[in-house]
Structures are given as C-alpha cells and as structure tokens.
Design brief:
246 residues, 2 domains, mainly alpha
Length: 246
C-alpha cells in the first residue's frame, strides 16, 4: 500500500500512468500488484484505488486512515470469532488490537524457554492443546473423554487445571503462589468460584473479571508470568504420569 500511495502522489509520472492503465486492464483472476490493491482496499472498507489516484491523501492522513481501518476490521473479526468459537471463550481481545500485544505475550521475556512456556499457555487459552476430550470428539473410534489415569471426569481445560487429582501437589503450589500475588482475601473470593479462577489462570485481563477484582498492571504481569509456569508444570505432570501408566 505504501508503494501504491507513493505512486498516487506522482501525477503525470510514467509510474502513475502505468498504474492507472494496469488497474483498468487487470484481470481479477491473476495474482498481481494491480489486482491486490483493490482487494486490500475493499477488505478494509477504504476508498477504491481510482479515487485515491485522483485525490491521494497525505502520508500522515493515509497512515492514520489505514491504521484505523485495519484496527477496526481485525477487532471486529476477532470479536465475531469469539462469539462462535467456544474454545476461545476465555480470551480477552486487547484494544487497540494492532501494536498492542496480548498480555500473554507482553509478559513474556524473549528467552527460548519462556517463549515455549507462553506458547504452551496460548494453546491452553485457545483450546488447541489436545486433551482427552478433544481426542474423543474428533476420533472416529470409540474413545472416552475421561482422563486415563483416574477414569473420572472429562479431561477438559477446567478439569486439568482445577480439579484433576493426579496433579494435586502441583496445583497446591500454584494456588499458593497465586494467593501471594493477588492477596489472601481477594484470592479467597476468586477460588470459591471455579469459573472465575479458571478465567484468572487463562487470561487475567478478561473484562468479566472486573466485577470481581481489579488487578494492577503489575499483578496482571505477575499473574500471567506465574500461570505460564503453572501450566507448564501441570502439563509436565500430566505427561510424566501418562508415560508411566502406559
């Protein structure tokens, strides 16, 4: 888009004439520069290329307009996805979405192991980590959604992180650390409600938590960083116990 606008600001130039002709003669079925420009502008509900060639905005005006249009598009797209994707119910879309990384990534130091932890947590947050309930749902054969070690309770994210008896020791340590970060009284109010606790673990910036507790910026970071460790330890415990059982 930057190249297109630079050419648009050069009326009378050879480049301007060529681009004008290419836009008029371009084949929509071909993948080329002249066909991609109208597609991008239409996608973000921006003026057609012919209008921009006739009246090109200034560099500052276009930068602001394009940023606002793309931000609105992707925020709307994400919010629509969250309404229909059950596995994404715990995610809070950051605003503004562009140039504002999710707290999960903003709290992660650029170190290999911490990035790996964040990726693991992201898979749990988005529901893309394969648990027994996922295997049962998509496997054509008769596969139970019950956790293999205890044969009680569907192995969902909630079961894994909050109630699975196989990880009691890991969970106890994790909850104690969360209590230190959040505060005893506040954590007690959260812990007695499973839906609030799982939301705090998976995404403590979610707007639904604001009616129960208001985390400071530091608490958001500390909770996020600790839950990376907690999720890693739970998954490691799960993997270890399953490997021994098999």
């Amino acid at each position: 888009m930057a190249l297109f606008l630079n050419i648009a600001r050069l009326p009378g130039s050879v480049e301007h004439q060529v681009l004008n002709r290419q836009l008029a003669m371009s084949n929509p079925d071909r993948n080329s520069f002249s066909t991609s420009i109208p597609e991008i502008l239409h996608k973000y509900n921006l003026p057609p290329p012919e209008d921009l060639l006739q009246n090109p905005p200034s560099k500052h005006q276009w930068k602001t307009t394009f940023r606002n249009a793309t931000t609105y598009y992707w925020e709307s797209t994400w919010k629509d996805e969250l309404l229909i994707q059950f596995t994404a119910k715990y995610i809070q879309v950051q605003s503004p979405l562009i140039s504002h990384p999710h707290n999960l990534w903003a709290s992660t130091d650029p170190k290999p192991h911490e990035v790996w932890r964040a990726e693991l947590k992201a898979r749990l947050l988005t529901g893309t980590y394969i648990l027994q309930c996922n295997t049962a749902r998509f496997n054509r054969s008769d596969v139970s959604a019950t956790f293999k070690l205890w044969n009680m309770g569907y192995e969902t994210r909630e079961h894994l992180l909050l109630t699975c008896k196989a990880h009691t020791d890991v969970r106890s340590e994790g909850m104690n650390m969360l209590q230190q970060i959040i505060g005893g009284q506040e954590f007690a109010a959260i812990r007695c409600k499973g839906d609030i606790l799982i939301q705090t673990i998976l995404d403590c910036t979610h707007v639904s938590l604001q009616q129960h507790i208001n985390f400071t910026k530091k608490q958001n970071t500390d909770v996020e960083r600790w839950t990376h460790i907690y999720c890693e330890r739970i998954i490691s415990s799960r993997t270890g116990k399953l490997s021994v059982a098999m």
